[in-house]
Amino acid sequence: MPLTIRNMKAEDIPDAVTVVQQAFANDPYSRWVFNDRERFSLSRNRISLSLRCQWGIRHALFQVAHEEERLVGVAMWLPPVLSTPLPSWASWVAGQYASWDLWIKQGIANMFHGRSTLNIRRYYLWKEGQAKAQNELWKDPQGYYFCNIITVAPDAQGRGIGKALMEEVLKRADAEGRSAYLESSCYEPNVKIYEKMGFELKRELPLTDEGDDITLYCMTRPSKEVKS
Predict the structure, then answer these.
(1) Alpha carbon of 30 to those of 6, 90, 99, 214: distances in Å?
(2) By CB atoms within 10 Å of each CB, which of 53, 69, 91, 130 scores lowest?
C-alpha cells in the first residue's frame, strides 16, 4: 500500500491524536507520568495533545504518514538549537515565544476543561533528569534534531512506517550536517531498532517516585556523510 509522508496540517490533528493515544496506551513513561489511572481522561488528554500538535505545526517539525486516506503514523521532532553563547535577539525572542505559546494555551485549557491528571512532580523529575542527560550528551554545536514522539497505529506496525517517518528527518539532518537525539521508554525492541538507523545508546535515565521506577534510554546519532 502506498505510503505518503508530509508535514502535519490542522485537519490531521484529530486522527494524529487518536494514533498517539492508541500507541501509547501502555507506554511505561506515559503510565508513569499519568499514574492516576482512575482519574485519567482520554477526552481531557485529547485537548492537551491537540494543543501540542497545533504548537508543533507552528514551531517544530511534526509529520504524519498516510496509507491512502488513512493516517497511520505520527512523528514529532523538535528543531535544533545552536550552541552559541549569545543567541541573536531575533532567535531569543522566537525561542521565548515558542515556549510561552504552548504554556499559555495549556493554562487556558486548565481553566475551561479542568486540570490534566499529569503528575506534575513526576513531570519535573523527568525534565530535570532530561536536562542533565542532554547537557552531558549534546556536544554538537550545530544542535540536535530531537525526536520527541514517533508512533504508528497498532494495527499498522511492522510495515516499515516508523522507519520511513524517521528517515524523512534523518535525511534532512544528514544534509545539514546535524546530529539527532531521542529518548526511548522501552529497551525491547526499540533500542535495537534505533541502532539499525544509526543511533547509539549513550545513557540510561532512571526515574523513580514513591517506589515506582522506569528507565529511559538516551540515544544519539551523528550526521552521516551525504553521497553526491
Answers:
(1) 26, 35, 22, 10
(2) 69
